[in-house]
Amino acid sequence: MQTERALPLFWRVLLLNGAVFLLGTAALVASPATVSSRPVLAEAVILTGGLGVMLVANALLLRLTFRPLHQLAGSVEFADGLADVPVPRAEPAQRIGRAVNGLLDRIAEEQRSAALQALTAQEAERSRIAQELHDGVGQSLTVALLALGLAEQASDDERSAALTRARDATRDSLDQVKAVARRLRPHVLDELGLRSALASVIEDLFGAGDVAISRGFSPALPHLDEATELVLFRVAQEALTNVARHARAGKVEVTLAPLGSEVELVITDDGIGSTGAVEGTGVAGMRDRAALVGGELTVSGAEGGGTRVRLLVPGVVR
Q1: Burial, 243: exposed, middle or buried (Cβ in 10 Å; 0-12, 13-18, 19+)?
Q2: pLDDT grade, residue 86 (50/70/90)?
Q3: Is the dihedral angle over the CA atoms 93, 95, 101, 103 positive or is it negative?
Q4: Which of its termini does the chain have fewer beta carbons within 10 Å around, N or C?
């Protein structure tokens, strides 16, 4: 859409003032009034009145010039949410109005995109939990039910073995339910702090495997608020879960240390890496979480192969 070209506001004000003073000067020249070398009272009254008329005329013209800007400011101030504001016809208010509406449109689009990403991440998390319950708890309970069914029809010795299998399967199911619950809400984070919570995640994911784990948790971290600690925990949990499931890594290194007034979390593995892969909902979710607390997340290839996840978050200034 083409817009009308108009003079900048500075030149419009300057020309208005010039026109007023030019008209005032012409009026004085054309009038019969004269000024003596030593002005008398009548001449002073005429000059003062002429100056007053010019000032009033200038004020009225400037009010007309700036009225669209005041109207636009009022529209923006009382705008309903992200609804577009009326665009004045006069420049520069027209240009500012269009810029404001463009900004509001971009904000609305980013909000829709963020909401869609949050919904996608939420559904992915629900799907993952449902799969864990089906594959883990569901199978263990199935084994327990089969063992109890056999126990009903077995001899005493066979019944004892079947009940033992049912007991073991039930215990496994309970452990899996507890593990899912810990992932849903990290109570250890509330009770023991961030370092213990990270150690718990590492133990849950790699404690029974043959992956070599290297941990470096600094005891001297800047003060972190609850939201920032939760983001650090969730990002570490997601990154380590990805390593455990997909990386086929033999070594994982996790460090948490201060970096000036900020805190740096780095998770590095020597697995198959993800160079050139499309960013999935997991990484997108980690990036969104980091942005919520003013943090910065980077995912890159590690030296010698593998993946390096780095999260930098600000500490709380006391």
Answers
A1: buried
A2: confident
A3: negative
A4: N
Query: Residue 244 gets which letter from DSSP?
Result: I
Q: Report which residue type is found at 210.
A: D
Burial class (CB within 10 angstroms; exposed 0-12, middle 13-18, buried 19+) of 191: exposed
- Any idea which residue has 């240009």 for tokens? 95
**pLDDT 10s digits, 1-18:** 444 566 666 677 777 777
- The residues, any chain, with a CB within 8 Å of residue 158's CB and separated by 6 or more, are 150, 151
Residue 11 in tokens: 């030149």
pTM exceeds cut of 0.70: no
What kind and span of H or E run contains 72? helix 41-77
Amino acid at position 71, single letter? Q
Residue type, 125: E
Distance, CA of 237 to CA of 201 (rounded, Å) = 7
Short-list 252, 266, 272, 271, CA closest to 299: 266
Q: What is each CA distance from 138 to 169, 181, 237, 244, in whole angstroms?
A: 10, 15, 23, 21
Mode of pairing for the β-strands spanning 212-217 and 251-259:
parallel
CA–CA dist 139, 177 (Å, integer)? 12
Q: What angle do CA 231, 247, 242 make, to 5 degrees?
A: 25
- Helix, strand, coil: what percent of the chain each, to 5? 65, 10, 25
The whole-angstrom separation of Cα 248 and Cα 200 is 21
Q: pLDDT by residue (tens digit) across 14-50? A: 777 777 777 777 776 676 766 666 666 776 777 677 7
Q: Which residues pair with 307 in a beta bridge?
A: 269, 301
> Do the Cβ atoms of 267 and 252 come closer than 8 Å?
yes
Copy the structure tokens of residue 214.
């290297």
Tokens of 222: 């800047």
